[in-house]
């Protein structure tokens, strides 16, 4: 037997914010790199980054290969222009 279900309107995301294409797909855009991990195999090391994507929560962040991320999103790996951000400002004030 089916029961009546009331949806939560706070979970609805406007489609204008996501920019859905005609084929009902959209491209996720990385917002921030959260973590870095190096896995050592027998003959090489594999570097992975934990990436936070737009329109997702931190718990939904995914591990991505360094090579792929640097090819597709090089702007995430450029040095920051504003020295007030990050650990460099902490070191310079000491």
CATH class of the domain at 27-77: Mainly Beta
Query: In terms of quaternary structure, what is this?
Result: single chain
Strand content: 25-35%
Overall mean pLDDT stands at 78
Shape-level CATH architecture of the domain at 27-77: Beta Barrel
Q: Into which percent range does the helicity of residues fall?
A: 10-25%
Run of helices and strands: HEEEHH
Largest sheet, in brief, is: 3 strands, antiparallel
Give, in spatial order, the strands making up the sheet with the most strands. 1-2-3
Shape by Cα distribution: elongated
Which class best fits the helix and strand makeup?
A: alpha+beta
Low-confidence stretches: 86-94
What's the CATH topology label of the domain at 27-77?
Answer: OB fold (Dihydrolipoamide Acetyltransferase, E2P)
Radius of gyration: 19 Å
Please work out how many helical segments DSSP would assign. 3
Distance between the termini: 68 Å
Give the total of beta strands: 3
